[in-house]
Amino acid sequence: MSQSDSFGLLLFAPAAVSKKATVIKDLKQQDCEIVYEEQIRLDVERAKKFLELYSKPSEEEANRKEDTIATLTEDSCLALVVKKKQLSTTLKQLFEQNNVSADKEGGGENTEENAFSTKYGFPSDLIYYCTDKENAKECIDFLFPNLDIRSMSESNNPRKYLESTVVPILTSGLTQLCKLEHKPEHPCEWLGQYLIQHDPTLPPKKKIYFVLGGPGSGKGTQCAKLVTEFHLCHLSAGDLLRKEMQSGSPNGQMIDRMIRNGEIVPGHITIELLKNAMEEQSETRGFLIDGFPRKLDQAGAFEKLVGDFEFILFLDCPQEEMERRLLKRGESSGRSDDNLESIRKRFTTFIETTMPVVEYYRSREKLVQVDASRSVEEVYKDIRSYFIESKSV
Fold first, then answer.
1. Which of 323, 350, 311, 376 minimizes the C-alpha distance to 214?
2. Annotated binding site for ATP
3. Closest alpha carbon to 223 in 293, 291, 319
4. Under CATH, domain 5-153 is a member of which superfamily?
């Protein structure tokens, strides 16, 4: 990297994040390289510290500090780390001139500020950019203490890039391939999947756990306890289907009819509902999905369209006990399927379609089975031990 190459930081306040495309376009037209991009959530203390590092505030800015902190903490900010030769000059040309009032005497209209707002779609005080090299480094180090800028500066060197990023993970994958007792029929396909799943440059993968059990086995109750202790997001396939059903859409009407008959809703509908719900939960550490997959083809489609999962938690409970629980729940739940006729249809469907899923993943050693006929506390004691052992929580 040339001596004149330097790094800079741009931080978009939440209200400006949606307009990033225009700013990034201008940066790239000026030959700026976006070497790192991340949405971050600042609490009050981190916002205060960032502002202290960012600038020496004037008296006027100090009076506005509380409003500025509120602006930075209302939602996620967007941070860009930018690299270019003589970056300071470029940032000043793009942004700094827009902050100067057109009328120095204070009586005129701030036409430069208006030009900024017109061009980018937000006021200039919603973007923070460091033109000083040392100041930029301080702010970057504060926001991203584990970010290795040195390795970024070497990214244009193919040999160093391969040595620092590709070789370690490839070596690890080949080592694991050699250790396998049963060698895969297609080793390159296996290696490709391994590299994708263990790529350190990708954001941490959110763990997915399926929870299966017959109707009334206690899936929702146990998931609620896991959410409280392990801070996972609980998604109930059944609840999502019922929500869609209540919307009155054509899919909802079909779902209503199928649930009343104890039938399995087509997998592509359930997977789409799950995928949309998962995308809305960007901050969670992982997902508990109960009541899914109900059929083997659903499991395969989910792995292909959404991702792999850690294991299936299977709550094993005698049919007599589940029937007793459901009839008791039906006294107050108001659910259309909590009646004896629907319950027995659901039992039949579960045995015929979902038990093959259980047995298949048992053979693949991705099943955890727990006796769910006992008290809630006894069942949870066994369940939590598997999550404590899991590396993901």
1. 350
2. 216-221, 329, 374
3. 291
4. Nucleoside diphosphate kinase-like domain (3.30.70.141)
Q: Answer yes or no: are the C-beta atoms of 178 and 184 closer than 8 Å.
A: no
Contact 80, 37 (CB under 8 A): yes
> What does the CA dihedral 199, 296, 317, 330 come to, rounded to 10 degrees?
110
For the chain, which residues make up each domain, given as ranges? 5-153, 158-198, 207-389
Q: In what order do the strands lie in the sheet with 311-316?
A: 233-236, 286-290, 207-213, 311-316, 367-371
DSSP state of 344: H
pLDDT average per 10 residues of sequence, the chain (393 residues): 67 90 87 87 91 66 72 92 83 64 45 70 86 83 79 57 79 89 87 80 80 93 93 90 86 85 82 89 87 88 87 95 89 73 88 92 94 96 89 48
Token output for 213: 């059990």
In the annotated binding site, the residues are: 216-221, 242, 263-265, 291-294, 329, 335, 346, 374
Q: Are 262 and 345 in contact (CB under 8 A)?
A: yes
Nearest Cα residue to 233 out of 267, 284, 277 = 284
Measure the CA–CA gap between 129 and 149, rounded to whole angstroms.
17
Cis bond upstream, residue 158 (ω within 30):
no
- Give residue 161's identity as a one-letter amino acid code: Y
What residues are designated binding site for a ribonucleoside 5'-phosphate? 242, 263-265, 291-294, 335, 346
> What is the helix (H) or strand (E) element at residue 222, kind and residue range?
helix 219-230
3.40.50.300, 3.10.180.10, 1.10.730.10, 3.40.50.2300: CATH of 207-389: 3.40.50.300
Scored b (16 or more CB within 10 A) or e, 65-102 reads: eeebbebbbeebbbbbbbbbeebbebbeebbeebeeee
